[in-house]
Amino acid sequence: MNVTRKATTVRLPDYLLADLHKEARRRNISVIRLIEGIAEEKMYTPNAETLAAIEECRSGVELEEMTEYDIEHLDEYIAKL
Q1: Which residues are within 8 A (CB) of 15 and not within 5 positions of it... i.e. 6 or more apart?
Q2: Cα gap 16→38, rounded to integer Å
Q3: What angle do CA 24, 32, 20 make, to 5 degrees?
Q4: Exposure b/e, 45-69, CB count within 10 A at least 16 = b
């Protein structure tokens, strides 16, 4: 995915910036990438329904395999769900 990024200035307390630098070094990533990842995680947390669907998929319970016909006629397959 091609994402356009814009520069911005953020003022952070010294202790927080120091901790961000330490964590970025520990993860072997840049401070900017660390901040971006934390912000995305906090901003785009899945809702309860999505979390339940993720858990269902991981558990393997009641999963149904799609046939080639289902894939070719995906709209019909979705409608019958």
Answers
A1: none
A2: 13
A3: 40
A4: eeeeeeeeeeeeeeeeeeeeeeeee
